[in-house]
Structure formats: C-alpha cells, structure tokens
Amino acid sequence: MPIVVDVDVMLARRKMSVGALADRIGITPANLAVLKNGRAKAVRFTTLDAICEVLECQPGDVLRWEPADADRSPERATPTAD
Fold first, then answer.
1. What tens digit of pLDDT does each residue of 21-34 get?
2. What angle do CA 33, 34, 39 make, to 5 degrees?
3. Measured between alpha carbons, how far is 16 from 21 in angstroms, rounded to an integer?
4. How confident is the model at residue 2, as a pLDDT?
5. pLDDT one-digit tens code per residue, 32-61
6. Contacts of 4 (CB under 8 A, 6+ apart)
7. Burial class for 42, CB neighbours closer than 10 Å (0-12, 13-18, 19+)
8. Using an 8 Å Cβ cutoff, are 55 and 66 in contact?
9. First-to-last C-alpha distance (Å) of the chain
10. d(CA 31, CA 27)
11. What is the spatial distance between Cα 50 and Cα 34, in angstroms, rounded to a whole number?
C-alpha cells in the first residue's frame, strides 16, 4: 500500500501506549491497531484530527506516501499515441 501510517513512530516519540491513545481519541485499541498496522482502508478526518491533537503533530507526521512499484514511476511510463 502506498500510504504508510507512522502512528507507532509518533507514539514512541511521545512515550504513549496504543491503549492510552485509543482512550484519548475515543476509538477501540483494536481499531487503532488496524490503522497503525496499515490494514485500514480509510481514516475519518475527525479521527486524524484527534490523533494529531493528542500527539501534538501534523497529519504528515503520521501519514506518508510511498510509491507502490518503482517500475511504474512516471519516468518509465509508456507514452500513449494520440
């Protein structure tokens, strides 16, 4: 998945447990684990807002994009005929 969730990095920086964050943002530890482990298909802006507020960070501190496949980069794309 090209979107990488770095919640665990921010948790470590803030010395906070998954359970404590889950309690403070109002979701279950299981649902936070789904997000943290990259298995979530979506995240609500309200949840992202709560995570950023509690961890005192920006959305880019907990989410980042990585290319899925280097062979499919725009530089290697095959031009289309018009």
1. 999 999 999 999 99
2. 140
3. 7
4. 87
5. 999 999 999 999 999 999 999 999 999 999
6. 38, 63, 64, 65, 66
7. exposed
8. no
9. 32
10. 7
11. 16
Q: Are 53 and 82 in contact (CB under 8 A)?
A: no
Tell me the C-alpha distance between 49 and 18, whole Å: 16
In angstroms, the CA 53 to CA 68 distance is 29
Among 29, 31, 56, which residue's Cα sits nearest to residue 43? 31
Q: How far is Cα 16 from Cα 1, in angstroms, rounded to an integer?
A: 26
Work out the angle at residue 57's Cα, subtended by the Cα atoms of residues 70 and 32, and round it to the nearest 5 degrees: 75
What token pair was written down for 7? 């919640």
